């Protein structure tokens, strides 16, 4: 028998789970259901193995301007406040030293300026010269000829297990609302609009809904395309791989200065707080174009890749124009080269020496089974690669979210915009005061 639900969310990654919690806790929406294809919460990119586990605050990521950093900090602080309120600090989110490292004269000057410009919004960030750095992270200085400096903080909640947090969102959401429920092992096969409702067919049966939120990673765009939406978007799945250090030669989160033309963060070092003990340090991620929508899962279907790419002359033009840029071309070739056995590791080593110059080939090993996938969205209408997230909303009772990065950090921030919109659409109430009291007002 088909059951009717007010809001159905498709996908229990960190985005869908955060939204589930926010609907259950901060609105009078009567029933909410989350459908997930796999047997557990956050099985793909939101899992600890899928991402770099960084709570992005905007300070050490050079792709964020001051204005963007202010926004990112705000949205990250919602998650920080959530972990504080529910007692998850030092359980699912941990303090580490963190820094943005500059190498060579030009970058050293850049760090000085960035530290100066950002110190008002990030008062805890210090400027560290080579002497100071040699005390904090000696391996950054060993065998380094070029000058270096960093802006950083010694003790910051910056490493977070998004997979575990997603689980807490589902648990806390269910506690808030007796009609908040989930179905796992439940793959959505189709969504169809019928007058004022949506009919959702899955491997476990059918539901109807007043509102549908599609938070299914790369699959969101496929669902949109199938329903005739988002035709100006196409996407290429980009896998990210990591290497482990065999010994914990560093202990901090260490980000490096990013080439502004590239949509992905430059190499960084991250303590692995997820599936391994925290003295495991990951280096990466790489960025490799793939023909699959999911990493390390069976059942990827090539036709889904084709649906996602939605290839036409406009896609070809964006790819061609991007490849005309020497930096982008070299970046892609370098990342493909990393995949070649033996030579790939050697080539990655050269890149990793940007962080630890004395690194030897036997100091690193490929991190098997680690690394998720970001959908690099192509804006066909404006002939460009989109940096960050995309949302397709035709004011029709359905929203498709694609949140490749920093979607995990901004899960509650994105979610609250969606709940507010859904409440308005369905003529329901969003409990703004309750939201502010719990996740904003007590903020430091
Ligand atoms: C290498 C890498 C490093 C990253 N590092 C960071 C970082 O340090 N910090 C950060 O903030 N972000 C980071 N990100 C980005 C972050 O991982 C994503 O933004 C985030 O995980 C997206 O969450 P999501 O819930 O939107 O998608 P996902 O986690 O992909 O979840 C989508 C869910 O939808 C389900 N689904 C799909 N199709 C169906 C269907 N038909 N029926 C039912 N369910 C379906 C999937 O099984 C999945 O569980 C990184 C990403 C990568 C790849």
What does this structure look like?
It is built from 13 helices and 20 strands. It is an alpha+beta fold and 444 residues long. The strands form 3 sheets. Strands 1, 2, 6, 7, 8, 9, 19 and 20 form an 8-stranded mixed sheet that branches. Strands 4-5-3-12-13-14-11-16 form an 8-stranded mixed sheet. The protein has a 4-stranded antiparallel sheet with strand order 15-10-17-18, with helices on both faces. Strand 8 and strand 9 (205-214) form a beta hairpin. Helix 1 packs parallel to helix 6 and helix 2 (66-85) crosses helix 12. Bound molecules: flavin-adenine dinucleotide. Residues 10-16, 35-38, 42-46, 50-54, 56, 187-188, 215-217, 219, 240, 285, 371-374, 403-409 line the site of flavin-adenine dinucleotide.
Q: Approximately what portion of the residues adopt beta-strand conformation?
A: 25-35%
- Total number of helices: 13
Low-confidence stretches: none
- Structural class assignment: alpha+beta
Question: What does the largest sheet look like?
Answer: 8 strands, mixed
Number of strands: 20
Helix content: 25-40%
Instruction: Indicate the overall shape.
Output: globular
Q: Give the ligands present.
A: flavin-adenine dinucleotide
* Average pLDDT level: 95
How far apart lie the N and C ends? 49 Å
Q: How many whole angstroms does the radius of gyration measure?
A: 22 Å
What's the structural blueprint in terms of helices and strands?
Blueprint: E1 3-10, H1 14-26, E2 32-35, H2 66-85, E3 93-103, H3 105-118, E4 126-128, H4 130-136, H5 138-141, E5 148-160, H6 162-176, E6 180-183, E7 188-194, E8 197-202, E9 205-214, H7 219-226, E10 233-239, E11 243-245, E12 253-256, E13 268-271, E14 281-284, E15 288-289, H8 302-309, H9 313-324, H10 326-337, H11 343-352, E16 364-366, E17 373-379, E18 384-385, E19 390-393, E20 398-402, H12 411-426, H13 432-441
Parallel strand pairs: 1-2, 1-9, 2-6, 3-12, 9-20
Antiparallel strand pairs: 3-5, 4-5, 7-8, 8-9, 10-15, 10-17, 11-14, 11-16, 12-13, 13-14, 17-18, 19-20
Helix pairs in contact: 1-6, 1-12, 2-12
This protein binds flavin-adenine dinucleotide.
